[in-house]
């Protein structure tokens, strides 16, 4: 009998250990994550590259016409970049399927320092052929960068943190523009006349952008990313070009994507206008100051929008509608203001040039600052909106290709319009074109936005992606109205099956 007692105790301990291993605490113990595979680290890599490459690119162009005195040729050259980006985005997903997301991202960083070097030679020596060649090179490589960057910022973050990460990414791009503006202001602070910026400014930008490929190499492949909620990053790409193009066409023909296409096209259309406006009406140091101040305002406003878009006290639908209404009302008022200001300056006998000590500088510079703020708010909102409409994260690269390709098409046309001599086509005409496209995208977008976040008649609080719609609706019903409503939904599903 006494010999049996240890066996019973051992059996009891073994049973207890077995039950402990099956307990919810043990089963749901989150595995330890490797810091360089976390979402935050990888989004920081993308954000750093956004600062180095498009951030400093925008800093140069934010000074007006790439910092040159005459915006005409630089705007025409920039339109070449965006035409090539559009073509690359159509076929780029097949390239990524072959070389991998990380190495495609690395290669996308190669064109930016070449573009900055071409601007240096253009401003210092009047060289035009190298600028055009550099725009071709940059158009190809930056097309790959736009595609992969957009895919990462949409696919890698957890759904409930997407708004904040989008704000973080865009803020890093703007920090590049802000620091670029500060550097340019320091170098050009004594230049109180209209003209090109100091050539030493370009040398600083070239040195920083040359680091881009090395930073990009630290990005984790999608399969190694470790999210905080333990979900996987799913990116699926067939390696057959024919299959990929058919999949792309199917996605393009989706009702929501077709209705949002005008919004994608228009979201970046104003960039060429406010860059040309800055070069046209301000002294060199005022252009740098305007770029610096505008960038600071953008960072603040984008983080406000990002936190609002992730605020789960409101439903996804309420957040989508409120943000859309506020941003588009602000943009409509801004285009009217820009039209009034441009018409006023064009009516003068001589074109005004404002320095920061001149009367009327504040009124004039507000057009540029508010335009840059509105541009980035629309950009942030567009990516969040498309991320909510997308139902499968496996299609994220194709979706990024559609967004970036449509953007590039809009920018190619916009920079082409702003390359026309202002004696033939004044800036007020560019504002009118911008306003026309802006008005045209409101109604189609509204049809999508008013239905975002509604699953089987239920307004959900979390973005639905990779889940069954019925499961998402039932979870929302349990959260809000208890199990009775969930039971009704379950009964409805049963009837549909029968």
UniProtKB/TrEMBL annotation:
<keyword id="KW-0472">Membrane</keyword>
<feature type="region of interest" description="Disordered">
    <location>
        <begin position="471"/>
        <end position="498"/>
    </location>
</feature>
<feature type="transmembrane region" description="Helical">
    <location>
        <begin position="199"/>
        <end position="219"/>
    </location>
</feature>
<keyword id="KW-0812">Transmembrane</keyword>
<protein>
    <submittedName>
        <fullName>MFS general substrate transporter</fullName>
    </submittedName>
</protein>
<feature type="transmembrane region" description="Helical">
    <location>
        <begin position="103"/>
        <end position="123"/>
    </location>
</feature>
<dbReference type="InterPro" id="IPR036259">
    <property type="entry name" value="MFS_trans_sf"/>
</dbReference>
<dbReference type="GO" id="GO:0022857">
    <property type="term" value="F:transmembrane transporter activity"/>
</dbReference>
<feature type="transmembrane region" description="Helical">
    <location>
        <begin position="40"/>
        <end position="60"/>
    </location>
</feature>
<feature type="transmembrane region" description="Helical">
    <location>
        <begin position="427"/>
        <end position="450"/>
    </location>
</feature>
<dbReference type="Pfam" id="PF07690">
    <property type="entry name" value="MFS_1"/>
</dbReference>
<feature type="transmembrane region" description="Helical">
    <location>
        <begin position="289"/>
        <end position="309"/>
    </location>
</feature>
<feature type="transmembrane region" description="Helical">
    <location>
        <begin position="129"/>
        <end position="154"/>
    </location>
</feature>
<feature type="transmembrane region" description="Helical">
    <location>
        <begin position="321"/>
        <end position="341"/>
    </location>
</feature>
<feature type="transmembrane region" description="Helical">
    <location>
        <begin position="361"/>
        <end position="382"/>
    </location>
</feature>
<feature type="transmembrane region" description="Helical">
    <location>
        <begin position="166"/>
        <end position="187"/>
    </location>
</feature>
<keyword id="KW-1133">Transmembrane helix</keyword>
<dbReference type="InterPro" id="IPR051617">
    <property type="entry name" value="UNC-93-like_regulator"/>
</dbReference>
<feature type="transmembrane region" description="Helical">
    <location>
        <begin position="72"/>
        <end position="91"/>
    </location>
</feature>
<dbReference type="InterPro" id="IPR011701">
    <property type="entry name" value="MFS"/>
</dbReference>
<dbReference type="GO" id="GO:0016020">
    <property type="term" value="C:membrane"/>
</dbReference>
<feature type="compositionally biased region" description="Basic and acidic residues">
    <location>
        <begin position="478"/>
        <end position="498"/>
    </location>
</feature>
